[in-house]
Amino acid sequence: MEEQGFFYRDTWAEVDMDHIGANVEAIRCHLPEDVEFIAVVKANAYGHGDSQVAEAALKAGASMLAVAFMDEALALRKKGITASVLVLGASRPEDVNIAAEEGIILTVFQEDWLVKAREVLKADALLLLHIKIDTGMGRIGIRTVRELKAAEQLINEDERLQLHGIYTHYATADERDDTYFTKQLALFKEMIGALDKLPPVVHSSNSAAALMHADARFNAVRVGIAMYGLAPSMEIAPELPVELKEAFSLHSRLVHVKKLEKGEKVSYGATYEAPEEIWVGTLPIGYADGWIRKLQGQEVLVDGKRSPIIGRICMDQCMIRLPQEVPVGTIATLIGHQDGETISINEIAKKLETINYEVPCIISSRVPRLYRQDGEVVGLNNSLL
Ligand code: PMH
C-alpha cells in the first residue's frame, strides 16, 4: 500500500480531495453565480487539514476562507495560502498590526474593540474588517443600531480601516422549524438597512441556510460542514438539495491477532470475558487519538464485516472481536467504506451522542492525515514527524 513509509504506526485518516472539490462544486451549482463561496476551514478544516482543504476549495470555486482565530489564519499564510482569510472569532485589538501586515480580515464585534484597535494600529496600516451582528446567536456581535452606526463611523473616519463586509450567524438554520431563523434574518436585514452604505460582502448563511434558505444568501455564504460531505443536522438531511460525499475516513491495521478461550478477559478492568472460543485483534488506536472510551462496543470493518470493539479502549490501542482468524496487517476501517459496507461519521456521532461536526474534529493530530486524489496519495500531514 502507498501509505507505507510515510509514518510508522498503522493508524491513519484519509481525506478524499475529489469529494471536497465535488461538494464545493455541487453547492456552488445550487447557488446563484454571483454568490461568493466562503470556505470555513477553522479547527484545521474540521479536522481534515487546513491548507489542503483550503487549496481544494479554492480550486473548486471558493473565493475566500474563514477561520476561528488569528493563529489559524497565520497558519494558512505560513503554508502559502494567499487568498482572503476572514477571522470569525474575537481577535485581541493589540494584534491588529499583524493582521494588517498579513492581509487577514478581522471581525468587529464591539464598539470598544474598534476604539482600542484604532489606538494601536500603525499609521500606514490598512486593515480590512467585517462587522458581526448578533441577531440571536448570543455569542459575539453588535446588538443595536446605535452601536452599529458608531462602528460604521469609527471605520469610515479612519483611512487605515476599510469596511469590507458585514455578517451574522444563525442559531437554528439546521432545524425544520424556521420561526427563530426568520426572526434573525429579519433583524439582520433591519440592521444592515441602517448603514449609510453596504460593504461589498454581505453574508449570513452557514451550510444549512445556504442550502435551505435562498432568501438568506445575500452575496456570500460561509460553508463548513457540507463542504466536508456531511449534513448540518439529521433533521434536514433528507431534504438537502445536493448530494454530499463524505471526505474523511479512518483506518488502522491489526497488529496482533490471537485466539482466546472461553472465559479469558480483555483490557483494563478485565471487564470483557470471551463467551466462547473467539478470535481477537488488536488495533493501534486509542483514546489519545480521539477514539474515546465511549466508543467501546462500536463496530469497525474488517474484510467488509462488522467487528465490535471489546473491553475498554486504552490510550493507544483497542481490541476487536474478529469474525474469524485474519492475518496481522489486515486493514480495519473505523470510518469509511470497505467491501460494500460503510461506517459513516453519522454512525459514530450517534454512538457518541453528539453531532457529526465533532467526530473528525476530535480525531487528534497524532493521527496522520493522508490526502487522496483520483485514488492516488497526493499528500500527507503527520504532525509528529
Ligand atoms: N460561520 C460561522 C460564524 C460559524 O461559526 C460556522 C460554524 C460556520 C459559518 C459554518 O457552519 P457550517 O459548518 O454549519 O456550515 N461554526 C460552528 C461552531 O461554532 N460550532 O459548530 C459549528
UniProtKB/TrEMBL annotation:
PROSITE patterns named among the record's database cross-references: ALANINE_RACEMASE
Active site residues of this protein: K42, Y268
Residue list for modification N6-(pyridoxal phosphate)lysine: K42
Gene Ontology MF, one: alanine racemase activity
Binding annotation for substrate: R139, M315
One of the GO biological process terms: peptidoglycan biosynthetic process
Pathway recorded for this protein: Amino-acid biosynthesis; D-alanine biosynthesis; D-alanine from L-alanine: step 1/1
InterPro entries per the UniProt record, alphabetical: Ala_racemase, Ala_racemase/Decarboxylase_C, Ala_racemase_C, Ala_racemase_N, Ala_racemase_pyridoxalP-BS, PLP-binding_barrel
Enzyme Commission identifier(s): 5.1.1.1
Listed cofactors: pyridoxal 5'-phosphate
GO cellular component labels: cytosol
Function, in words: Catalyzes the interconversion of L-alanine and D-alanine. May also act on other amino acids.
NCBIfam families found in the cross-reference section: alr
PANTHER family linked to this entry: ALANINE RACEMASE, ALANINE RACEMASE, CATABOLIC-RELATED
Matches recorded under HAMAP family: Ala_racemase
Family: Belongs to the alanine racemase family.
Protein's name according to its UniProt entry: Alanine racemase
Organism the protein comes from: Mesobacillus subterraneus
